[in-house]
Design goal:
With 97 residues, the protein is mostly beta strands. It has 2 domains: 36 residues, no CATH class; 52 residues, N-terminal domain of TfIIb. Helices cover 4% and strands 29% of the residues. The chain has 1 helix and 7 strands; from the N terminus they run E-E-E-H-E-E-E-E. A hairpin with a 2-residue loop joins strand 1 and strand 2. The longest helix has 4 residues. The two termini are 43 Å apart.
Length: 97
């Protein structure tokens, strides 16, 4: 929601939507029912592999053709991400730059 006076973003405060310029919107009152509760799921290390996609990649250790895949920024932001792979069969982890 945006302020009708200055156009800034309205923020919730004291059960109302308020702006930095002092504008307050009564009709935009917040109600407890309107606030949705977010459920956060925690993944155990044992369940973690199931959270990654499985792709076709050959393991250099056991020769399996399937691996979990994820990326991570390991160098400066102007460098490409590092690709990590984990063999579905033996658990060997390798990376590509």
């Amino acid at each position: 929601m945006f302020c009708k006076k200055c156009g800034s973003l309205l923020m919730p405060s004291d059960g109302k939507m308020k702006c930095r310029c002092g504008y307050s919107e009564e009709s935009g009152k917040l109600k407890d029912k309107s606030v949705k509760k977010t459920k956060i799921e925690v993944i155990d290390k044992e369940q973690q592999d199931g959270a990654y996609p499985v792709i076709n990649a050959e393991c250099e250790k056991c020769g399996s053709k399937k691996a979990y895949f994820w990326t991570k920024q390991t160098r400066s932001s102007d460098e490409p991400e590092t690709k990590f792979f984990k063999c579905v069969k033996c658990g060997h982890i390798w990376r590509e730059y």
